[in-house]
Design a protein that fits this description.
Radius of gyration: 32 Å
Strand content: 15-25%
Number of helices: 9
Shape: rod-shaped
Strand order of the largest sheet: 4-3-5-12-6
Distance between the termini: 68 Å
Oligomer: single chain
Structural class: alpha/beta
Order of helices and strands: HEEHEHEHEEEHEHEHEHEEH
């Protein structure tokens, strides 16, 4: 019993001695000096030992950091969202996420739908909240439906009487308010206007939902917007009218890159989105 143990101990000592000699050859220096029957570290050996301790500490720190990233307790998260989602939900989303995951650097960007898709494909975004509407989204993305919404004709309470005339292609005194060119909603609404011969009496362009709704509410204007947009205004002076004929519903959901590893922080954020937006 003692012989195999002694033999194993001798082999371990020999292996360590060979490793030390190999390191000394690589560094062209002596790491130990013999002092009597013992040995002590040389000046070079002291430097090597000090550096080795620093490297081991860095390795330990690296392991800890990677574990925190894998667990979703640390790191960064870049999210692209539509303007309506940002206005209605993001205060609640950010507050809840920061409370649950205080060490995650959350970067939330309000973007057009096409820019959300591009950001995900290019690797600038980790996840996006956008929409699809009778189209094939980028094949490099996966889409998870959260909810569907209808499109509405939007007027003020005082101008609600003109809604049927607008939809019947009749003359009316209201001016139309739209997003600028480049927004996908603009292209959808323009196609609807053209197809149904809706009279527009010129167009005002604004790039903020709140500004569009404020102008509709307080001026002599109307717009055609997804239903979610109109919910942003809470003064009670906005009227939503069903479109006849209807536009196809807008599908709002989560976009993920297809060929990229999903970080735990992304999964945690999406779980919160599902909970809040359900």
């Amino acid at each position: 019993l003692h012989y195999p143990l002694r033999r194993q101990r001798q082999m371990c000592i020999r292996d360590r001695s060979n490793q030390i000699k190999q390191l000394e050859n690589e560094l062209s220096t002596k790491l130990f000096h013999r002092v009597g029957r013992g040995v002590r570290l040389s000046e070079s050996g002291e430097i090597v030992l000090s550096t080795a301790k620093k490297i081991l500490n860095e390795v330990t720190h690296l392991q800890q950091t990677v574990n925190e990233l894998e667990s979703g307790s640390r790191g960064s998260l870049n999210v692209g969202v539509l303007q309506s989602i940002n206005t209605l939900y993001c205060r609640q989303l950010v507050t809840a996420f920061d409370k649950l995951h205080p060490n995650i650097n959350l970067n939330l960007l309000e973007l057009a739908n096409k820019d959300i898709e591009a950001g995900l494909i290019q690797g600038n975004l980790d996840v996006g909240i956008g929409f699809i509407l009778n189209k094939n989204y980028n094949p490099g993305l996966n889409f998870e439906l959260l909810f569907k919404e209808d499109w509405k004709l939007i007027t003020s309470q005082k101008n609600a009487e003109f809604s049927s005339g607008i939809l019947n292609s009749s003359s009316h005194p209201l001016k139309m308010v739209l997003f600028p060119h480049g927004f996908e909603t603009r292209a959808i609404v323009e196609n609807y206007i053209s197809s149904n011969q809706i009279k527009t009496n010129n167009i005002t362009e604004l790039n903020k939902i709140s500004l569009i709704l404020d102008l509709v509410e307080n001026g002599n204007s109307f717009s055609i917007l997804p239903e979610l947009f109109a919910k942003i205004h809470t003064n009670g002076q906005i009227r939503m009218h069903d479109l006849v004929p209807k536009l196809p519903q807008r599908n709002i959901g989560l976009f993920f890159p297809t060929q990229r590893y999903t970080k735990r922080s992304v999964s945690n954020f999406c779980s919160l989105v599902r909970e809040i937006m359900s």
